[in-house]
Amino acid sequence: MTNKSTAIVGFIANLMPLYFGEHHENAWCARSLQDGTLILPFSAGEDSGNEGWIRVCWQGDRQRETEVLGETIAALALERFVRLHGTGVHEEAIAAELCFLAQHFTFKTGCYVYLPQLSQPPHPVVRVVRRMGEGVLVNLLSKIAGG
User: Fold this and answer.
1) Is pLDDT at 131 greater than 50 in this prediction?
2) What is the mean pLDDT of the chain?
């Protein structure tokens, strides 16, 4: 079974084109294509509580290494990824995609990203109703009710 640390790094490595996966020191890692930062998983023994700790080597430099919970780096990576792929769309669409990816991250890793202002997007029917406008909605409901 994969530990949370390995699952988090694997998830981040798939956020193309911001990151790509590579083998480094016998582990699958994520490398930032923006600045070369290397994200490495903890081994199961190092993260004995299976909390999702990772190592971040800034600009790939092992002398500038930080150990953090992976969900913190993932929150930043997800936000950048969604904004890159959502260039030109409305903020509501970006928020909906970020919500979806945050849920997918939880499904894949068992961890939760910290996005305190993010709320669930409305149900698709609610979104359609908003687009239609209130006047059209009243007419539609009147027809359905037989009036």
Assistant:
1) no
2) 84
pTM: 0.79
SS3 68: strand
In three-state secondary structure terms, 99 is helix
Whole-number Å distance between alpha carbons of 114 and 105: 11
User: Across the chain, where does the E strand assignment appear?
Assistant: 19-24, 27-32, 38-41, 53-57, 65-69
Contact 7, 108 (CB under 8 A): yes
Q: Are 101 and 86 in contact (CB under 8 A)?
A: no
Residues 6+ apart with CB under 8 A from 109: 4, 7, 8, 11, 52, 70, 71, 74
Q: pLDDT tens across 97-128, in order?
A: 898 899 999 999 999 998 887 777 665 544 44
Instruction: Count CB atoms within 10 A of the CB of residue 138.
Output: 10
